[in-house]
Amino acid sequence: MTDGAILQPQDDLVLILDFGAQYARLIARRVREANVYCEIIPWDTSVAEIAKRQPKALILSGGPESVHLEGSPFPETSLWDLGIPILGICYGMQLMAEVLGGKVKQGDHSEYGSTEIERIGGESLFGDLAQHLVGWMSHRDQVVSVPSGFDVIARSHTVEIAAMENLEKKFFGIQFHAEVTHTPWGADLIRRYVIDVSGCKPTWTPDSIAQMSIRNIKRQVGEGKVLCALSGGVDSVTTAVLLHEAIGENLTCLFIDHGLLRKDEREDVEEAFKVFGIPLNVIDASERFLGHLEGITDPEQKRRRIGEDFIRVFEAFASDHKGMSFLAQGTLYPDVIESAHPAGGASHTIKTHHNVGGLPEEMGFELVEPLRYFFKDEVRQVALEMGVPHHLAFRQPFPGPGLAIRIMGAVSPESLEILRDADAIVREEIESGLLAEELWQYFAVLPNVKTVGVMGDGRTYDHLIAIRCCTSSDGMTSDWPELPWKVLRRISTRIMNEVRGVNRCVYDISTKPPSTIEWE
Ligand code: XMP
């Protein structure tokens, strides 16, 4: 399988040099929210490479290093001669000061948290923000003297130089993290930097993103035929809708029903595709998948068997439909960043994640990845722009192995039925309580534990259902929300009244880490 051709968006470009900061993605989010296109690149990208991309501005992220330590990241010095605006945040500011002739003092303790910042002018960056502001700091070193040509434009009660600028060169340094939500005016500052200071046009809007994707698909695929395997999630649905708009009937969509879907899921996807007039090939392979899962209790074994079956079913379909040279995948920008900067990426050893995308390497498809520049919320916006119904555009993530990893132990038709019914109630109540948009995921789990209960005059010995709700921005870490008691009470009452075989409900109050979101 060859990698998807890198297709450039046409918009003004901001490049973010990543110095290993946990914050680089947040910076990118803020720039995109200003409707300006940006990409994150490793800090050691050559200046020639950067110049070739013709960025309108650079942002240097923070990072865990100290400019005084041997081996810390220093880009080529010609970076400072590109003649474009540069904003350094935290380590980026210290680097700017150190390289251009200022002084950085190595700190002996860290400052971490909210702090009061006082402006000293600095209209270019601060605009008409108040004189005293609260911003978020996370640093050890600090700039103690600015390079010549620079002015100090903010101080705090812990650092004398909290921000600096050289207006002539359009170089700016800020010690605080403007990209985090704890700096509530930070998004304004970033917007002012990319639009007012750097002159980027705010053209990165859902409509322009969709049009760009469609143009790029046409350019890449031409008259070729594309196979798009769908999971029903917003990424694959949006991929399919963009492809259909670009290449019409040269698109073939495949949805494999592995029998581990949620209640009405297949019908929902079929319905949505009907609305778009996109022909959908649905393969009901549930017997095959469930057959291979019989008696299997180990979570990784389940994942492997399901992954293997996906590949076999997919291969059979592809060999019955010859002539397709492209495979569409809903790869998102965070996946692209993670594979380009593996050190900062997620650990994939905790669970073997399986997506319908990770398919037959040896089949010789070229990849089409129309979403490879987008963050999840941009995909949702594009989906809405393209007419995807709201409930599909804001659908919660659902794992490839489906309900199999929400049933502890062996999966059976009976356990699937109980879980499906309980899960439908959790979804209905969360969605009708308008809580869904605040949650990353919300679902039911069947731990396969029976407990004693009482119903009427009789003793019962029935299943326990766990309710799992999570807040998260990317699934890498998560917290549990303090749901209104009313909602929890309604969910539990309904599950116990309406789902046969259940006599007890619990609410999962585990954060990730140390737990994971899914139970298996
Ligand atoms: P965990 O359980 O690892 O989940 O905290 C993090 C996110 O990944 C999803 N997940 C999966 N997605 N195949 C998938 O496609 C998998 O095997 C899988 N396991 C977990 C999970 O739903 C959550 O959003």
Descriptive notes:
With 520 residues, the protein is of the alpha/beta class. It has three domains: 185 residues, Class I glutamine amidotransferase (GATase) domain (Rossmann fold, 3-Layer(aba) Sandwich), CATH 3.40.50.880; 188 residues, Rossmann fold; 102 residues, GMP Synthetase, Chain A, domain 3, CATH 3.30.300. It contains 15 helices and 20 strands. The protein has a nine-stranded mixed β-sheet, sandwiched between helices. A five-stranded parallel β-sheet has the order 14-13-12-15-16, sandwiched between helices. β12, α7 and β13 form a beta-alpha-beta unit. α6 packs across α12. The longest helix has 22 residues. It starts with 12 loop residues before the first strand and ends in a 13-residue tail after the last strand.
